[in-house]
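Table S2 (continued). Query chain:
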Amino acid sequence: MNNIDYSIINAFDGVLESLTDGEKYHLLPPRGPREDVAVLSEEELKAKRLNENGESLAIDNNYDPINFKNINIDIEDSMLPKEIICPEAVELDGINICGINGSNQKIEKNSFFLILARASIVNFKYSKGVEPPYFYRKHKDATAVTWVDGNIFTEEISLYTNRQLTREKNNDGVSIYPALKAQTANNNPFLVRYDHNKSDKSPSSHALVGQSNSNKH
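Corresponding output:
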């Protein structure tokens, strides 16, 4: 395993060290996670049902102007194959091709979820002359823990997780993007709790991950 892959997984070492001892766990009364931990908003939970274009993944909802963005469906006039002509070298000269990939996974347990997310961008520039092709790749990693069972972790969980979202929260919520921008693979994972008061009662829905791939020029 290379250093990049190891660092994103290694971020959970402290979290796993914070698991409650099994014998002690079975003696504790059931309880939810601490109230002072950040939660997802209703808007974020609803967004999971939308694709990258803001369209509902359920066909019946695509035409609901109140909750979802309407879409237009283009119908092909013919099923015959279309001819694709390869471009000439002069047409590709100087063009930048960007590939964007989001590869996210979660480790699911009944009492908690571990979330690993990686976004990568690859930029390649074509050249027909003596100028060498330009190429670079950048990636951004992020990790998070969704806390469901209040007894599964000891109080030490606060030492090994990022509580920035909780500290900055106000009545209007807090944007996660500045926090993601600042997080590195060596940082502690974000800590978010499951909230049973939300409309979506499934704990796995509160452990948001997605996957997308696209190419642009």
